[in-house]
Amino acid sequence: MAAALREAQRQLVMREKMASLGDLVAGVAHEINNPVGAVKSAADTSARSIELVCRALEESGNLDDLRGNERFLTALEILKSNNAITVTASERIAEIVRSLKNFARLDETEFQDADLHEGLDSTLTLLHHELKERIVVEKHYGELPHVQCHPNQINQVFMNVLSNAEQAIRGEGTITIVTERRGDNVVVKITDDGEGITANELTRVFDPGFTTKDVGVGTGLGLSISYDIVKKHRGRIKAESEPGTGTTVTIALPVTQPRQ
User: Fold this and answer.
1) What is the CATH number of domain 2-102?
2) pLDDT confidence tier of residue 187, bands split at 50, 70 and 90
3) Spatial distance between the Cα atoms of 160 and 218, rounded to a whole number of angstroms
């Protein structure tokens, strides 16, 4: 009986991880598709502009002819503009790839020193497709030391909490992230101005399988898994909420861990 229960729990956790992975892959694909499309369009336009430049060079008798050739000058301006587009799009792709590597990096058996701000920013980059044009993210980062943790797991906590915050906001809204050091701990507070939940629901928010989302949205395991991860890091996580005013999730982690 105990073995069957453990197997059921294992399958539920795997289901949650696969659901998160599916959302993550879809988001990354969407985010990369936009700059890739911009690069492709810029390349096509640049190719036509290069043809015009080459033709103008072949037909011109001297430099003065080129200076007065409007098609030649227009082609040069297009090339300059497309180069800027390509640079911007390439930087965006590089940012997404860096964020994905930071978010999904494999943990070692020992704790590592990690920059929590880097983890938060990487997670926000991967969630950008869900947030843009709808939700404003306000970041109030304090001075934090590096924290001994398993970065991949802590990033998963950030992803779960931020995803919940995004889904709690039906229309336009704001997510506020505040970080600070309190003694031997660092604290991350994530607040949304979404619908909020009742006091009765709040007591169950970290229970496996509990969810206030619509049918088919999520598995109800995100916050339960987050609770277990934070607990394994000797930290604390709590939620505060009121219907109609939003929800705040506070994560406290010790700066250092006992030697293993």
Assistant:
1) 1.10.287
2) very high
3) 10
- Under the banding of pLDDT at 50, 70 and 90, the label for residue 134 is very high
Please tell me what DSSP assigns to residue 46.
H
Q: What's the full length of the chain, in residues?
A: 260
| Cα angle value 172/178/179 (rounded, 5°) | 150
Q: Which fold has domain 110-254?
A: Heat Shock Protein 90 (3.30.565)
Q: What is the pLDDT of residue 121?
A: 93
- Residue 237 belongs to what H/E stretch? strand 236-242
Percent of the chain surpassing pLDDT 90:
31
pLDDT of residue 216: 40
Give the amino acid at 155: N
Report yes or no: 79 and 46 within 8 Å, Cβ to Cβ. Answer: yes
Give CA separation, 221 vs 106, 129, 258, in Å.
Answer: 21, 22, 28
Q: Please write the tens of the pLDDT for every residue from 51-100.
A: 888 888 877 767 777 777 888 888 888 898 888 888 888 888 888 877 77
Helix (H, G, I), strand (E, B) or coil at 109: coil
Please tell me the distance from the alpha carbon of residue 98 to that of residue 47, in angstroms, as a whole number.
30
Q: Which of 69, 114, 85, 249 is nearest to 177 (CA)?
A: 249
Residue whose structure tokens are 């049918």: 215
Which H or E element spans position 225? helix 222-232
* Spans of all domains in the chain: 2-102, 110-254
**Does the CA dihedral 197-203-205-208 come out positive or negative?**
negative
